Amino acid sequence: QITLKESGPTLVQPTQTLTLTCLLSGFSFTSEQVAVGCVRQPPGKAPEWLALIYWNDAEYFSPSLRRRLTITKDTSKNQVVLTLTNMDLVDTATYYCVRGTVEGGFDYWGQGALVTVSS
Amino acid sequence: QSALTQPASVSGSPGQSIAISCTGTRSDVGGYNSVSWYQQHPGKAPKLMIYDVTKRPPGVSDRFSGSKSGNTASLTISGLQAEDEADYYCSSKMTPNVVVFGGGTKLTVL
């Protein structure tokens, strides 16, 4: 059974850095040749794609957030870590880990982690 | 990057067919066969319903179908059922290697 599970803080102060960990189960980068990344969804709004990292280490980012994002993978732990710096109130959203590619869409989603930015 | 344009809402009666449009540009919808559609029920994560414009993942009902003409993609749901009531989002690859989502459409089954 393929699952992705997000873990991280539920509350972040403005200007702090969000670190979101995605633990993968039921598949691995090397065997599936897929990508894993993050999509966020502010309350009541549409999803917004943030970043993807591929099995071959290729990385792709949302142009509007590129300067604030990093994404790394640890194949030995089967996890992906996303960081978003300089958090602001407008970054309040549910953050989802996703499996998929730029071309083929996202076939598996985590349950989501609500991150609230507030002082 | 600008979001793809979807109607805010559509509605239909059980058994009817409805279509949801997703309009972009030559840099996204029109330039690639990489349109996906997602269904989202309240409080749940989005679910992939269509990918590569017309393909259905395993387990997705064949009442759901996708198409594209020029810069506009469409999701058609036939034989509308109460359980289809949800929010629907399209997404597309955009030049150079970016994913862009639509603003979403709320489907109401009357």
Q: Explain this structure to me?
A:
- Chain A is mainly β and 119 residues long.
- Chain A is built from 1 helix and 11 strands.
- Chain A has one helix at 29-32; strands at residues 3-7, 11-12, 18-25, 35-41, 48-54, 59-61, 69-74, 79-84, 93-101, 105-109, 113-117.
- In chain A, strands 2, 4, 5, 6, 9, 10 and 11 form a 7-stranded mixed β-sheet that branches. A 4-stranded antiparallel β-sheet of chain A has the order 1-3-8-7, with no helix packed on it.
- Chain A is globular, with a radius of gyration of 13 Å.
- By secondary structure, chain B is an all-beta fold.
- Chain B is 0% helix and 45% strand.
- Chain B contains no helices and 9 strands.
- Chain B has strands at 9-12, 18-23, 35-40, 47-50, 64-69, 72-77, 86-94, 98-101, 105-109.
- In chain B, the strands form 2 sheets. In chain B, strands 1, 3, 4, 7, 8 and 9 form a 6-stranded mixed β-sheet that branches. In chain B, strands 2-6-5 form a 3-stranded antiparallel β-sheet, with no helix packed on it.
- The relative contact order of chain B is 0.34.
- Chains A and B meet through strand 5 and strand 10 of A and strand 7 and strand 8 of B.
Largest sheet of chain A: 7 strands, mixed
Low-confidence stretches of chain A: none
Specify Rg of chain B, calculated over alpha carbons: 13 Å
H/E element sequence of chain B: EEEEEEEEE
**Helix and strand string of chain A, N-terminal first?**
EEEHEEEEEEEE
Based on helices, strands and strand pairing, what is the structural class of chain B?
A: mainly beta
Strand segment count of chain B: 9
* Strand portion of chain A: over 45%
SS summary, helix count of chain B: 0
Oligomer: heterodimer
Write a brief caption for the model.
Helices cover 3% and strands 53% of the residues of chain A. Chain A is mainly beta.
